[in-house]
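ok trying this again, last paste got cut off
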Amino acid sequence: MTTFRNHCPHLDSVGEITKEDLIQKSHGACQDCKVRGPNLWACLENRCSYVGCGESQDHSTIHSKKTKHYLTVNLTTLRVWCYACSKEVFLDRKLGTPPSLPHVRQPQQTQENSVQDFKIPSNTALKTPLVAVFEDLDIEVEEEDELKARGLTGLKNIGNTCYMNAALQALSNCPPLTQFFLDCGGLARTDKKPAICKSYLKLMTELWHKSRPGSVVPANLFQGIKTVNPTFRGYSQQDAQEFLRCLMDLLHEELKEQVMEIEEEPQALTSEETVEEEKSQSDVDFQSCESCSSSSEKGENESVSKGGPEDSTETTMLIQDEEDLEMAKDWQKEKMCNKSNKADSDGEPDKDRDTVCETVDLNSQETVKVQIHGRASEYITDVHLNDLSTPQILPSNESVNPRLSASPPKSGNLWPGLTPPHKKAQSSSPKRKKQHKKYRSVISDIFDGTIISSVQCLTCDRVSVTLETFQDLSLPIPGKEDLAKLHSSSHPTIVKAGSCGEAYAPQGWIAFFMEYVKRFVVSCVPSWFWGPVVTLQDCLAAFFARDELKGDNMYSCEKCKKLRNGVKFCKVQKFPEILCIHLKRFRHELMFSTKISTHVSFPLEGLDLQPFLAKDSPAQIVTYDLLSVICHHGTASSGHYIAYCRNNLNNLWYEFDDQSVTEVSESTVQNAEAYVLFYRKSSEEAQRERRRISNLLNIMEPSLLQFYISRQWLNKFKTFAEPGPISNNDFLCIHGGIPPRKASYIEDLVLMLPQNIWDNLYSRYGGGPAVNHLYICHTCQIEAEKIEKRRKTELEIFIRLNRAFQEEDSPATFYCISMQWFREWESFVKGKDGDPPGPIDNTKIAVTKCGNVMLKQGADSGQISEETWNFLQSIYGGGPEVILRPPVVHVDPDALQAEEKIEVETRSL
């Protein structure tokens, strides 16, 4: 791990060593018992050449105690251990001869006038990355301490926090995520409070430490969660699924990185089709995917209007012009604001918020109209299709747009030193290629999947297709009648809207009482009496089943311009590396909450999701093995959470019940009442490939060239079934150099590989780019200096203008500005956000009455002077102007003279 490189006082005793010396020693044997490697230990004490065993009789430890030589290096992994400090240490002098690196300037941060200045410091050499060793490529090192499985540490309950403990243990046993924090801990860097990623890193380090403490207290992480989300304050029982979503949203927000890509501009894009800016899905809160079963949505109190019975993420099916586009965006944003604090009946965040979708419309002329929104882009284009029944879906991540000003400033540039960015965008000629922005994090890499949701009008056969990113699947638990329909040959795929899961339908008092009696009777009678057992495949089939949209749930067809009968269906376009499945066991009404205790059987291995994969999806692994399962014992109002997790080191199952950890059998896990399940893609081929590469590294062939590779991608190679192409862009800028802000911790981002390893990885996975030389990008340095100068200039001018505004006794006018936009600008000038905000957007605080733009009542706005408004508007553009003029009070001169006379007479008395 590269995070905890605490200074070891014994490093001064290390003699001169080279990688060649260690390689030569690794071919030898223990000097005491003559046992040969692997896992021999070499003493690093100056002028000491001792080599001892670490497994047979542990002569290396005996040598350390006798001679007080505390530092020793494992000749297999090249990792250094200090016996006195009882910890792993890292040498300042890296093993091996590094290639020459130029002296470069390293960024430092100071603070002046609340601005983080980007200064170019004195010459400092880039730190040389470590050479990749066996453990970096997932070699199983059979040291004595490795024989004891790690990760079997409990979590103390600190006040009704079993829901948190179960969720954390389930996540902890997801190898791709945990291995990222253990091996790439140096990437857990954030300036955002409360730094949840750092607390999570510390917790994972404690849980997976080789000392294996009995239990730890997750107090820091819990305190950070409570700071952000008031729901988890106090000592009441909460929902484990809600906690998972909150935690993963926060981790993504703190760890997200902007990814710059160059992509072809759509050929069918015309000048009338306005390109708009939108946030990437990876930049907004993740949501559970519940859109495929409208029946479940209806029963879950998720509003479905007659104007659009399908998922709200589809907003309007097609927006033909810019005005309609803006109206739809405003409508969706207003819904998000109104429902941001409202949970649905299952205790889940409203799914209308910030859901990524791409809309594709098929009409009878065999033309598909595409509207992509939520992925930082919106455009409409035409693509001809050969077969309406099998629409060809465009890739979901293929388009992102630059920031363009919607309304240019009305006046010229009043501040010559600052160039309005929107004017540059307008003056520049359109190009075939353009730069796009999107965001990713380890959370989105692991848990993001894509669903295709389609609605077909049964009158005109128009098909609307929505590409939707999901983080988990919330599945209904079908009842007996639903199972019969799912299994019936007469109803192979269609399930009537509202039928899936009787427990989710709105109930009156009598229906509620009858349902309660029914469940009581069901619990007292053997399950065979009631029919087949519900399986996880049944829940998936119910979720992906077609829904008939008719009656009160009719479909608003854009082509027919009226309500029509329709059919809704969905499939998965891209499966995530780890699939999180949430079973809807809880139903919350106004005065009552109920729990569905139906047992759902689930496989421990070999969950086949091929039936739910879209026809035109790219080839991918669709077989999953269970990693962990969260269970709830009790009722809807009270109960207890536990987790069953498979330890990745010994493949045994354990029960995590707060601070108690107990080994259990597979049958115990299969009989559990599952609430949340984590499945991981299964691939024997990936395991064979890792072993092959590890064997190549063991050869230690001399290489004239060393290649640098991303630690993040290497973690994917170690833990993903489908790591994808090599991506070194997480430590490179668009110019091919090291971004100045990453230069100080470049050793946490990359590892060096021998040429033969790089050649094998590159020929297998592709990607890149190949990197043989690390240097700080001079172009990025200049850009950083310019942006920092711009920050300081804007802030200084604003402070001066605002101070003058505060000194005015009675200003004639006030200019209102959206506080949402102002906060973004403030974050930029204070150095908290690297990108400047877009154009000023006062649409949320403005309302037009009788042709006049007025301030909306209760709007989140601030007041600035006319000079300040002109200054900001000349740089960023946007609008509209919202002006307040204080009422002028006219005083009668005679009355004023009489008051003054009375005051004089009063003083004389």
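PB: full thing came through this time. The chain has a mean pLDDT of 74.
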